[in-house]
Amino acid sequence: QVQLVESGGGLVQPGGSLRLSCVASASIERYLSMAWYRQAPGKEREFVASIYWTGGSTLYADSVKGRFTVSRDYAKNTGYLQMGNLKPGDTAVYYCNVHPYWGQGTQVTVSS
Question: Which has fewest Cβ within 10 Å: 5, 13, 62, 81?
C-alpha cells in the first residue's frame, strides 16, 4: 500500500503561482505514473496532469496546458505540480493519485 500526502495549497491572486507536492510513502515505480486531479465545488473530479515515473513523459488537460508543469523527484518519491498564471476557475481541491491510491487533497483558491 502507498500513502500519498499533498501539500502546498493555499490562497493566491489571479495570475499568481503555487507549487503542490505529493510525497509517497514508498517507491511508486511499479505503479508506473503519478497523476493530479482536481475537484471544484459542485463538479466532478477531473484530470489535470500526469507523469510517468521512470520515463518522465507527461500529459496535461487542455485547460492547464502551458500554465501547469508536472515533475517528479525520483529519489524522493515526490511529485510536483507547478501552477502558474492561475485563474479563478482553477479553484478546487487538488488530489494526487497513484492508482489505486489517493491523497487527502489540498485546497487551492484563486481569488482577488
Answer: 62
